[in-house]
Amino acid sequence: MLKDELIKRFMVTNGEKFRLADFDPGDTVGLDIDKEEARELLAAGTRRLHALQERLYAEGRWAVLIVLQAMDAAGKDGMIEHVMSGINPQGCEVTSFKAPSIVELRHDFLWRTTCALPQRGHIGIFNRSYYEEVLVARVHPEILAKQNLPPSLVKEDIWKDRYDSIRDFERHLARNGTLVLKFFLHVSKGEQRRRLLERIDEPAKNWKFDAGDLAERKRWPDYMNAYEEALAGTATKHAPWYVVPADNKWFSRLLVATAIADKLEELDPQFPRLDEEARAAMHRARAELAGEGNGANGAKRKS
């Protein structure tokens, strides 16, 4: 796993001086390892996550919300598949947010994601999230128009108003026992081009290709500006952003796995301890079950 001081290089808790250009999508903090070593490190990380999630689930006090945001082909789906591979599905839910429905458009922009928040003891993963409402909706004004807001509220500073709402929302979650971790998978335009071509050229990946991705790619500067302002406007200590270099998938997955595990360890969830009455009942049950082994029904099976 990566050392804590390395993880902090990518964590943003105050956006006052944040500049996306300060983060290199190809950064690997000088690590020079082969694919096999990377797989072994990630496997160790997923085992660590599994052990921590088991305690989180058993304790049932904290919830964890993981937000994944990125440009197309940055690796969100692969991140979920590989990093969360060791997580017990009973305690983890993944929600992908596509274009909002008619019903969702009739509510405030936080409503549909609020309905999908994880319960205590669970990890919830948002594959895209309420941040789409300060990213895609900002780049495409026609999306904002569909929300049918009162004209007096659609002002030039509507995005700052939404940053305020998001900060308040995430503060509310933190105050009520939800750990919020947000990851922006920062892929370069050149690497995105390579991955999109791969989706076209490799038949097994054709299903991933969406011609609409090219239209969004043409708005790259607009998206980078929207991401920079959104991250700067919503990075806080209780809900930090991690700017994850995503050009090298092995490194991005290792960084995310380490960051999540580190924060879970800070929560330090514990298996529940039984009180005396429950312990006494358990001992009586054990004695009863052990006693059954002395009867005919308790005969050992022959191999």
Question: Could you characterize what this model shows?
Answer:
The chain is α/β, with parallel strands linked by helices and 303 residues long. Helices cover 47% and strands 11% of the residues. The chain has 13 helices and six strands. The protein has a six-stranded mixed sheet, with helices on both faces. Helix 2 runs parallel beside helix 12.
Mean pLDDT: 93
Which consecutive residue ranges, at least 5 long each, have pLDDT under 50? none
What is the percent of helical residues? Answer: 40-55%
Please provide the count of β strands. Answer: 6
Name the shape in a single word.
Answer: globular
Give a short summary of the structure.
The protein has 303 residues and is of the alpha/beta class.
Salient structural properties:
single chain; 303 residues; alpha/beta; 6-stranded mixed β-sheet; 6 strands
Layout of secondary structure:
Layout: H1 4-8, E1 11-12, H2 35-59, E2 63-70, H3 76-83, E3 92-96, H4 102-105, H5 111-114, E4 123-127, H6 136-139, H7 141-145, H8 158-175, E5 178-186, H9 189-201, H10 212-217, H11 220-234, E6 241-245, H12 249-267, H13 276-292
Parallel strand pairs: 2-4, 2-5, 3-4, 5-6
Antiparallel strand pairs: 1-6
Helix pairs in contact: 2-12
